[in-house]
Amino acid sequence: MAPPTDPRRPYKRPAISDQQRRRELALQAQSSRRADAQARARALASSLITTQAPPAATHHHEEALEEVDEEEHTVADVAAAASKLRGSDARRWFARQIMLPEWMVDAPPHLARDWHVFARPAGKRCLVVSSNGLTISRVRNGSILHRFPSALPNGSKREISGPASSYSILDCIFHEPDETYYIIDMICWRGYSLYDCTAEFRFFWVNSKLTETSAGDPPSTYHRYRFSAVPIYECTLEGLQAAYSGSTPYVKDGLLFYNKHAHYQAGITPLALAWKDDACSRYVIDTDSKGDVPSEQQLVLELQEDGKLITSDDPPVVFGSLDIEFIQKSNLRPGNLLRFAVRDESVKLVDGKMQISELQFVGKPNRARAFADSHSKALFQYAARHAPLRIEDLVASIQSNSMELESTDVEMQD
Questions:
Q1: Looking at the record, which segments are called Disordered (predicted)?
Q2: Average pLDDT value over all residues in the chain
């Protein structure tokens, strides 16, 4: 596609995915959804706090949990079912409780009007719940990261105020170098659910409510880790530049973009987007198990009982399959995460989707790996190797939108 002839209009990178269409569908779906936000928040808080569970686990437990959700049983039922999950079942369920971004493959229209942007701290993504005089953080696979006293509401024996059972749930990234929990979102505060509130409102509450506590103070006896809100900007040219180039107290790992109108949607959503380049992240192209950048793109996919290889999306994208003989010979099991190499010539982009004609089995990923790649991550990694979405493309998108608004204003005045 050749650049436009009008020199005043910046060149915009052509879209390569169907991300915008799915974003519009996601906004429509949330407006028609009538979820019981308080019940969802209570169920999540209870399951995060629950630590005792039987050692065995099967897919039956996850199916039982889904039945509990569908039938809207009590919070205790949901928490009890969640506590029984283990292995891949637990990873899948706990991962679906966090609002996970897609990878930005195409610059959304109306960035300046409809989006916030901030620099993502490098570290462990986790949910933090404070209740009954204790604070617990859990990473995406459900494992407990820390149990500690905090200055969050009811987060320590000293901080109990109001009902002892009142709870708060924060979406955080734990930044190990300064032992700080950086809050990137808020799900619940003192028992009040924010699931069905817009991102714009939730970000306002993060800043205003955090200042009501001493959670931002240095660590002390009743406050083991410091909490801090990340600087969030309107995605104007100035805001984008501040997030991209501005200094932060933490190591950056790319940028996160949140649609202002997005509710807190558990699971992967196109209403939150991750993006990175070499200037704002140490790791743009995925490395292999040795930490080196491989010559060919690599994907981590999850093996299903029928041999299909799927992404972590909901619904998942099938990228290929393994025959039963190879599965048995290699002693593989359903739920295993497997790493594959992808040759450039085996990739086609069809209707905004990535299609792969051949996958080369490499082996199992590092044991610390908890999830398969998403479709948007696979597409972002492919683009990063061939035609990356650059910071200049994001700037051009914002500038083009500004020109469209100015043109509309002139037409209205005429």
A1: 1-73
A2: 85
